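User: Predict the complex.
Assistant: Input components as received:
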Amino acid sequence: MDEDRVRKQEALIKSILYRNLMEDYTPFPLDKKLAVKWANGMNIPKGGRVILYTSYMYQMASVFKSYEKYVPTLGSLGKSRILASIGSRLIKPKDEDIDRSVRILQNVYRMVSRVKADVGYLYEDEPYSGSLLYELGFLDEFKEYGKKVLGFFRDRGVEEIITVDPHTTNTLTNLKKYINFDIPFHSYLSIIGTVKGKGKFVMHDSCLYSRFLDMYDTIRDKMKSAGVDLVEDPTVTGKGVGFCCGGPVGPLNADLSDSIAKARAASLKSVYEDVLVACPLCYVNLEPYCSIKDIAEVIE
Amino acid sequence: MNWVDLISTVSGGNYMEVERILKEYPYIAELADHLRDQKMKVIENLDSYVSMTIKNVERLGGHAYLAKDKDDARKIAGEIVGEDKIVVFSKTNVAYEIGLREYLESRHNEVWETDLGEYLIQISKGWPTHIVAPALGMTREDAAKAVKKIDPSIDENSKIEDVVAAVRKFLMSKYVKADIGITGANAVAADSGAIALVENEGNIRIDTVMPQTHISITGIDKIVPTLRDAMDEVMVQSAYAGLFPPTYINVTAGPSSTADIELKRVSPATGPKNFHLILMDDGRMDASRDEELKEALLCIKCGRCYFSCPIYRVLGKDWVSTKSPYNGPTGVMWNYITNKDPWPASYCVHSGGCKEVCPMRINIPEVIKYIKYIGSKSI
């Protein structure tokens, strides 16, 4: 591996990411109108005791995937608010990606609303969780930003958080460990009741859900009880051999990330042609190489 | 077949084979749990276990040394071997860690790797791809091309059996003339000074008894409290490597001995006159005192975590590269322990398969996260 390249890229990301988060609670300048589009017309209360927490993951997944490509641009934007505003127009997902995230998040909200009343959303005020800081090993910055996020939620009276993706769920789990993040949180998949679904798929497990958050069986049970048929091969979908989509290394080396995605898609396709995922980053990484759907696109 | 396809096939096969072994021999998992506890006892009190091991090796009539770093270990081994000798090596990662083969060759010794995979790597001037199967990245054609250098009757169309036979013939000619045999050790029993080695080819058995001097070089992390623990370790290691039962388990406790006359034990007998154990620190003692890192010392080098790792399955040996013989998830930990190099950790995608398949239940992603953090603090 090219260690100099990694060192330089990490240094660049560390400074840009931390600066953006501490100033604006977002990992990069983003168009918040696009991020909250899914909630328009849904009559979702702003804030409240219980909130659905998107952490921009579904809305901005394609930008997270291309983080390595965007880092030089992000660096050149500097601290200027005007330039950041320009950046948010330069760095944005495609319309069809936003439309897809709208459908997914609206479906998640509807499923959650059946078991929880008055679930709110923080709209443009929503802070990013800090997943990238944690996953890249910037633990000091992660803890510092985590305290800021915890204070933010407390100030708004948030008492319970429902997450929609594995990275945010795992991040809150680690904030609990490192800074005693004491607001209860759950993945939507662990609280929704009976749901209906259809289709036949090979499951690409989220690494975080299956091997860090102990949800390997939870998700399978939920899918099977919904009527979704999952095709298994222990050498491809077994808990110990399940394989990453390549996403986490994307900010440091997009080519390596892409090679992992290709290899994973090939092994999944050897089991069944249609792939099911539970993570927006897994989706954007594998999507170029296989027929794929998110869980929230097949259950309701 | 390209690397990604090859390793995908190998990984699936290994996973199923280990699962079969664990089902068929359920006591292996129990041994692994007990071994973890025993190894942790040593890690918590490494200084005293090193002293106990050295004392017991010497009590058997052997010689034991604690090498503090790579230079120290090369110097100790170099002085024992001397110059103009024929040396046969069995696969030893610690020898790679310190560059021992090259060092001995620079002192005018003729040095031959005797593990087939390692021999293929040596004659093709390569670098091990995997900790248990060093020539994993070589095809039959690659192996034949390499062996053709020492046996012109081999060509790229030769069968695997013919390639193996040609290597065997060549190595036999070296074994009979070898002055020194150098091995690693899968485990070292502190209570008795005995070492345990597991293998399938038979080369270790020859390396440890034919030459008149046997040197074992291994890390202090391989010390376990008792000889029973050492036997457990070789059983667990071979099972999780997917090669169980192993063809051979070797125990060496000092130089050769006999008690055939009046039941009085004397040394040497037919085998080696001299036994030397070089225990390598090279960062291990510091690691044992680091709460975030010490779990890494539990690793028994079965190499199973390599197969579960997406980065290894794409980059292969190019991940940690030739800075270290240790690759894959455990290699990221061990490259840091022995070289203080945190950067390969940056590529970890926290897939988590490594901790699922580890027989010692090392929380490898957590250790790697810590190493990432150390790297990130320096930028």
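Chain A has two domains: 3-190, 194-297.
Let me know if you want any component modeled separately.
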